[in-house]
Queue: 4 jobs
Job 1
Amino acid sequence: MRTKIIAHRGSKGTAPENTLESFRAALKSNCDGIELDVHLSQDLVPVVIHDETVNRTSNGEGYVYRKTYQELQQLDAGSWFNKRFTGARIPSLEEVLQLLKVSRFKGMLNIELKTDKIAYPLLEETVVDLVERYQPDYQVVYSSFNVQSLQKVIGLVPNAEIAILLKKRGAQKAFLPNGHPIQAWHGSHRLVNDMIKNNKRKIPIRLWTVNRLFDLGYCLNKNVDAIITDYPNRALRVRDRVQG
Ligand code: G3P
Ligand code: MG
């Protein structure tokens, strides 16, 4: 089984992260999956953006949860990256699900619940409701640095696929506090050997964020389940060389 190539925030290296433009570029690369980050607007719309604020990736300022979806829609989320992306917007999760539907996407959608800094009330409920409504015929994996969020997801959809995000050595968790098994580790690529060594249950190991040729080659040689990268085209080329 070849290592899956997952596009991090879409094709983050070549398009403004977490925009439809970035997800279209990822789809065009023919990668095996897409990772995105979700926060909640003031009016409880799940929106796709990495940071708690809009400052870094748009022409606006302030916290996402203090703006309505309509206010967020008015921001330019493209020109900070490159002028040719002027007018790109912060998409709702629904817009991305719609794009994947019309594109007949069949890969893995990794929805990262960004609840490690802000405890959004109802984030898990609104995200899960939306995804269930779309009845995706592709794999959906919910990930988070926050165990409580994953536990909430399982409380809502007991057969949901959940993955814990890891950034520190020795922080592997195998089970949620209620004993429910965690189905995959999404770890910093620096932890690859540590994760492989401690993977008693042989769950899938997915590594982020693997961009440099050396790191891609190193991680692909370990035959992990997936690599999450800002450069899906580059990672696919390296995979062809390393894994055939
Ligand atoms: O999901 C993998 C990776 O995206 C986790 O870190 O900060 O890029 O969301 P971050
Ligand atoms: Mg992420």
Job 2
Amino acid sequence: MVWADNLPGGTMQIGAVYREALQKLNAFLNDREVSSIEAYFIVSEVLKKDKTFLLTYPEYEISDKEYDSIQKIVNERLSGRPIAHILGKREFWSLNLKVNEHTLIPRPDTETLVEQALLCASKFDSGVRLRILDLGTGTGAVALALKSELPDAVVDAVDYSEEALKVAEFNSTNLNLPINLINSDWFSKIKARHQYHLIVSNPPYIADNDPHLKEGDVRFEPRTALVAPMNGLYDILNIVRKSGDYLANNGYLLLEHGYQQAGDVKLLMNYAGFTQVETVKDLGYNDRVTLG
Ligand code: GLN
């Protein structure tokens, strides 16, 4: 599409600029749905307008400078860098989170973990002050989503990475959702025994030989947040084994895992003494979260 060159400066219409971005992204990503979402992200970021505005006023004229900024972001995206890293943010559970190369980019699949944790939380008496522990919090996505829904809960969130904790701290302050951030290798710095009503985690669970690691956004994310030994099960095993020492009576452990790991995770949890172990599917209908 060369229309933009045919027009004098300052008369580019946002609808056409969006379509041009969409076309370029789609030629690269080969996924029209994702390309259209990313094209909207880019255009709304540069123009500081929301999606409704862009849909309602496709004839809105943008400046040369804005057009250049959009092109720059599109071109950077065409180098493979994740859009969440280029824009430095990603929405999760309707929270706008800062994201960088030190954290996993929050995924919609992980909202299943939040939903299930809220269901478990609802099983406690309303008088109980819930204590929640999020292991490997990254951007703080899961911990902050839970705090946003359960403002009275005490939420502790740990990460091994100091850099990730800086991002989580920024998000906590920026969203005005106070959580306790702890630098810890899983449970190593957690002193409170038998006190958590919920322990949640989206740990690394991908096997290091998974071909999926060579494609897309994961290439730019920290491997420590993605990959675990033992076919991806090492950290899950560690968490399952130790959770019993930290859970309150009738507390729940909820783990995100790979879509082919449900059987193994269930076995590990049963073996560790968990009861009522069940697996829940994500929006893509893949086994994603196991709880007990
Ligand atoms: N679900 C992510 C992916 O497959 C991985 C997240 C994780 O390892 N915790 O890209």
Job 3
Amino acid sequence: MPHPKTAEALIKCAGPIECSLLPRLLHVTEAAAIAASYQMGRGDKNYADQVSVEAMRRMLNCLDMKGIIKIGEGERDEAPMLYIGEEVGTGEGDLEVDIAVDPLEGTNLAADGIPGAIAVMAMAEREGLFHGPDIYMDKIVVGPEVVKYEKAHPDEKIDLDAPVIRNLEIVAKAFNRNIDELVVVILDRQRHKEKIKEIRGTGARVNLISDGDLMPGIATAIRGSGIHMVLGAGGSGEAVLTAAAMKILGGKMLARLVLPTVANGGTPEEIEAEKAEKMPRLETMGITEENINDVMDIDKLAPGKDIIFSATGVTPGILLKGVSLFGEGDARVHSITMGSSGVVKFTDTIYIHDKEKNPLRMG
Ligand code: VTB
Ligand code: MG
Ligand code: MG
């Protein structure tokens, strides 16, 4: 019998998806990131996106599983590949998995060669990931320290609708520090103007970013990252991917669907037009005008018990380095992969075709 607290015990409690697919998931995001990296800084975000989608799809189709894309590149008629509902994998074996992908998260970042672009995906057993519509989610993301604090103080809970100061007070107490020592990450968007003012009003420090609030969300669950909270509305797919990682890492996340026209202050006509276009499809997913505003917690966003997650850096970011290219396809890539058992791997992979021409290198 292994000691219950050893890595051996963790590995043995991994579910079938984690056991069979976690090592392969790494290859999938690595391939997408390397493909994207050849397009880095070339100013063509659509092409960068396209090559990562193609690479991710090719790799996914090598995996022995019956996979269904639940969060993907869009509806079938607008996305030729990795569309919502697409079946991927060889179809061999017993594994039935639901899949969330963002082959190039931060297409602008990649196209402009600036930090924070990643290739990212998650998998779980059927119905293990919330598969909502491709709209926005408003969210709040914090790390496991806060979960621990809430357990000890049941009256003090992070609340999506509470004033930012209330939530930051809880985070400050959880970290045993002052609010002005905390950092909140939020997308730099007009729709967040008031929220940014409110955060600054608490004395907390703000990290405004142009794109890519998924890795900052994950960073809230990693001590030493210097990020304590992520707030604001962004893509719902990115939010579910964040939730998959936070479920594995034991963090907390609350989120609520919101139509982009509503979040971005559209006119009543624009809001009505978006509702008319999107509500019928939302209703087929059980989302109605009555429940669209419900707050979802991590168990609703990522209910799976056998979740796996992988992200590979395209350009350098807060947790991951970018891709380095050594010539003729040889590359070095940095990733984080993790699974529900509790394993978190930071990997530094080198792919070399010709060892004489490109001997293994330290950096
Ligand atoms: C966010 C952010 C993404 O889109 O989801 C954002 O995390 C939301 O879209 O990196 P808007 O640009 O409409 O605000 C990204 O910036 C790009 O996918
Ligand atoms: Mg995308
Ligand atoms: Mg994206």
Job 4
Amino acid sequence: RIYSRIVGTGGYLPEKVMTNIDLEKIVDTSDEWIRERTGIEERRIAAEQETTCDLAEKASLQALEMAGLEGKDVELILVATTTPDKIFPSTATLLQHRLGNRGAPAFDLQAVCTGFVYALSVADQYIKNGMYKRVLVVGAETLSRITNWNDRNTCVLFGDGAGAVVLEASTETGILSTHIHADGQYEELLHVPSGPSKLPQTDDVAEKTMSMKGNEVFKVAVNTLSKIATETLDANQMQKEDLDWLVPHQANLRIIKATAKKLKLGDDQTVITVNKHANTSSASIPLALNEAVRDGRIQKGQTLLLEAFGGGFTWGSALVKF
Ligand code: ACO
């Protein structure tokens, strides 16, 4: 059997730090409210000229370096993003050119906060069936561009960043399974009301930026993440005790802790970056993974559960032998 192994990880955060105190000056909020309800202390914001592809490029170069590869060596490039540089060409093709790769297929994938797990799942299918041996999977976002800086319900929650992994075909165990789902009935609980085809000419800021019924999203997220954790373990005939690490999407510390508790995983087995990064959507899992791999917490041979929930709704998981 052929597995996809993660052989490189990378991450990049823009230099500019925006703290909760900075946000107190923009909207009617407080550091205390944000910390208590979300666990967020600060987030990074891309510079005016800095795009999603710029962040993706830096994260990708790090991941390739760890894998001992160059851009030209990968056979498929996937970028999960909700905030592409342009409507087209895809950010994946822009990235491909920056990385000096020609000819490999490259495409973007949109599943909002579940985007990275979706992309990992797609990449895994191509590797398992023998089509490609080396795949670059990136999650990259400049959510600050679709944030309504007048809306305290949302603007305190999000940040910019990018994470990347390089997958390689191997006979050694790697990705054990991926599970992806969607339910489009929840469209309006979490969305950007306008797009290139709907209300394309709107000047209304509220229509061009993220809108969320946070409390309702919260409840569905907690329930759904608990279910997908069970689905993933059952599919692999594994128990909670077999997990070494939870590497969750970083939307809210309370959601992360609820999932960890359900899995009987302590803080020392849960990778948490939401305090420093806030919610970076598709970038949050690869950023968290990269941090824990580089600081030595995650070790080769350990079993990781990656999980995410986001707009759509979409949700998904991956069980990975690192
Ligand atoms: N500062 C101060 N007060 C605030 C703020 C703020 N920034 N934002 C909201 N409030 C107020 C509200 O107005 C409300 O006041 P009211 O009671 O007078 O009406 C009160 O705080 C409570 O608001 P809730 O929305 O009930 O607060 P809650 O505890 O649910 O926390 C939060 C809100 C943090 C958004 C939470 O619901 C959440 O994390 N939801 C899930 C987010 C998520 O997982 N999204 C999916 C991924 S994102 C993606 O896919 C792009």
